[in-house]
Amino acid sequence: MSHMSHWQPRGTVYGTLLNFRREWDLWSPRMTQEPHKAAPQAPVLYVKTANTFSPAGQNLLLQDGVSEVDIGATLGLVIGEAGQVAGAVLLNDWSVPHTSYYRPPVKFRCRDGFLALPEQITPGRVQDWAALQLTVHCNGEPVQTVDLRELVRDMPTLLADVGEFMTLQAGDVLMVGTDSLADGARPRARAGDRVDISAPGFAPVSVQVGGAA
User: Is residue 38 part of a domain?
Assistant: First the structure.
């Protein structure tokens, strides 16, 4: 199968911040501080631009002095006609390690190739994936399990709350968020590492990380 036949988003890809309980709890003591002064009341979203889309089978090339990247295992809800969810995909939402998960600068999340895609969509309904667990391996060793039962906003709630202030179009993708480890960081990868994300019933996402020549 050629890369041209692999699935790619047809619309805008949105990420969701602070949507896992562990990270929410870690950040809660600072949510009343400047500049926000309160916990966010609506979902906090960001956009993964089209230059980040990396088709299945494509390597991630680290450039511009970046020596390691955060692994962002997540589920993306693919929007179909009439705003309904048509299916879902596993994604690796790479980012350059950083400390702010309120409004991370574009340069940390929107570098070329920073959204690793699977070969195909898995059709289904959000209730089918309520207890889904994503497994992350780095060089064959398990480094994280992402449990969607730990979402702050479960998928129906997230979709409804986003719909309060914006309309998702057919072809858009809404990522449900990425979980942190116990210390608040994400698992990380360096040049030479191979990262695999899998979940029952889904096309996996596998990426070889390479450094600049």
Answer: no
State which H helix or E strand residue 90 sits in: strand 85-93
Q: Which two tokens stand for residue 87?
A: 């299916």
- Tell me the pLDDT tens digit for each residue of 145-178: 999 999 999 999 999 999 999 999 999 999 999 9
- Give the integer Cα–Cα distance in Å for 47 and 119: 21
194 burial (CB, 10 Å; 0-12 / 13-18 / 19+) is middle
Structure tokens at 121: 């969509």
Residue with tokens 């969607």: 148
Residue 66, C-beta contacts closer than 8 angstroms, at least 6 positions apart: 96, 111
Q: How many domains does the chain have?
A: 1
Closest to 154 (Cα-Cα) out of 13, 12, 41, 16: 16
Using alpha carbons, select from 153, 170, 79, 61 the residue that is nearest to residue 116.
Answer: 61
CATH assignment at residue 80: 3.90.850.10
Asked if residue 49 belongs to a domain, the reply is no
Residue 104 structural domain: 11-30+58-211
> Residue 3 above 60 pLDDT?
no
pLDDT at position 172 is 98
